[in-house]
UniProtKB/TrEMBL annotation:
A GO molecular function held by the record: glycolipid transfer activity
Cellular component, GO annotation: outer membrane-bounded periplasmic space; plasma membrane
Protein name as catalogued: LPS export ABC transporter periplasmic protein LptC
Keywords in alphabetical order: Cell inner membrane, Cell membrane, Membrane, Transmembrane, Transmembrane helix
Domain of life from the UniProt record: Bacteria
One Pfam family recorded for the sequence: LptC
Annotated TM spans: none
InterPro entries: LipoPS_assembly_LptC-rel, LPS_export_LptC, LptC
Length: 191
């Protein structure tokens, strides 16, 4: 029945499969790529690169569209977010321009700028002052760059020379300087 060497070849794959626990680990180590030298005889294995973050102090950045300055912000500290989710700011002072003149000034303790959505989110002691003398206080404020709109939904207080108002939400349009105050609005005039 079994005549010749040809009939014994079926034993070779069987012996390789059964002997794998004895030589498999050493064979895998032998076939693995060598470690990458880094320098000064230091060697490390290749690993996926970790996400890199950065932190900067005393930062000023600005947004220009077609050579016209739209807004400028100063921050005491700026750090990048994980996964490219934007920048986190501390001690924010922002200035918004209309017709190349400063129109609105905003200060806040903390902020976040999302580049993908073009939204500047400010929170904690947010103060806004516009060129007409109106001032606004709130705990959180968003600037929607594409719309040219400042918005708050957490309660706002607005005051001017002869008027004071409170409301639950506010939309302020930088293009024409128009306010929309809504949600349980209290309006007071000062004689």
């Amino acid at each position: 029945m079994m005549h010749g060497m040809r009939n014994l070849l079926w034993l070779l794959p069987l012996l390789l499969a059964l002997g794998w626990p004895l030589y498999g680990a050493r064979l895998s180590d032998f076939l693995a790529p060598p470690p990458v030298p880094v320098g000064d005889d230091e060697v490390r294995e290749r690993r996926p690169t970790e996400e890199q973050h950065f932190t900067m102090e005393q930062v000023r950045f600005a947004q220009e569209i077609d050579g016209t300055l739209e807004w400028r912000a100063n921050s005491r500290d700026l750090r990048s977010g994980a996964g490219g989710e934007g920048f986190f700011l501390t001690g924010v002072e922002a200035v918004f321009f209309r017709d190349e003149a400063e129109q609105v000034w905003i200060d806040a303790d903390h902020g976040r700028y999302d580049q993908a959505l073009a939204v500047l989110e400010l929170e904690d002691n947010v103060r806004l002052l516009d060129a007409d003398g109106f001032s606004l206080r709130t705990q959180a404020l968003n600037y929607y760059e594409r719309e040219g709109r400042v918005s708050s939904r957490v309660g706002v207080e607005i005051s001017g020379d002869e008027v004071s108002a409170r409301g639950q939400s506010l939309d302020y349009f930088l293009v024409d300087g128009r306010y929309e105050l809504s949600g349980e609005v209290e309006f007071l005039t000062v004689p």
